[in-house]
Amino acid sequence: MDKLVSVVLVTYNSSAYIIEALESIYKQNYSNIELVISDDCSSDDTLEICKRWVNENRNRFSRVVILQYPYNTGISANCNRGFKEARGFWIKILAGDDILLDNCISDNVYYVLKHPEVRVLQSDTYIIDEDSNIIGKSAPIDDLFKIAPPNLQFEYFSLSYSCNTTTLFIERALLQEIGWIDEDIKMMEDTQLYARLTLNGVKLHFMDKITTGYRTNLSSVSHDDRNNLLFFPSIYNYTIQTNDKYIIPNLKGAKQLFLKYWIFIIRFFLDHPSLNNKTRATTLMYFLLVTPCILGNKVLLNSIKCNIKKTAY
User: Could you tell me if 69 and 81 are in contact, meaning their C-beta atoms sit under 8 angstroms apart?
Assistant: First the structure.
């Protein structure tokens, strides 16, 4: 259990929680850890806090690197800078407002030692609030998704997001093999990564243990205008980009038509800002348009589950 593990801590205006994130890395009960902090031009004092903390705690780690960029580039590029700088065999990514449980690294390493075929591993996570209180845990991953081969994991994933990105534990070499994160998709590093992994024949593995704490907070990019909009431009423009580039072209038949219709709905509301506000009329319009999606998703997902059963049993 002595392979070097790189914890890549990606930060952007994370000053409120960065000490908690750093301390959670320090407290790991696994010794051989490299810390790579990659900051995406924070406008607060995140970097200053990190530098002070590192000066006091550098000896805990095999190596410490702090990367700072002169302008904001987005999550994907920020991740890549950390990944490329890392020297560990395994990479554990952590956002600046999330935490690792003390057992996180050791549990992941122990699992991959027992299962040498694993190149990418996920687990369960607590959901924590802005005050670090546990308010829940991640939704369970469907057992059929866990046992599916990569091609069917891709199809399942395209219809029902089934990953806990906070828990991602991955070979650095694998990231390099697939060409790192696609930086053209600036803010949706997780969906494109899992799509590209499964498209490249890499199976997503899961460990039934809680290893991290994922913070839900009102200032995150996915919560902007959450009370006013049907679709958040900050998220759904990247959803369209990811689907157009990686998901829709790699589906066939009804599954492809289904995703194209769903993307059409998103584009329709984003292209008409007056309709993208939550009023009684626009909400009714939304439900009328998405009802076929709700029904179609159930039918198509059920067919994928049947195919998984056929391949597994």
Answer: yes
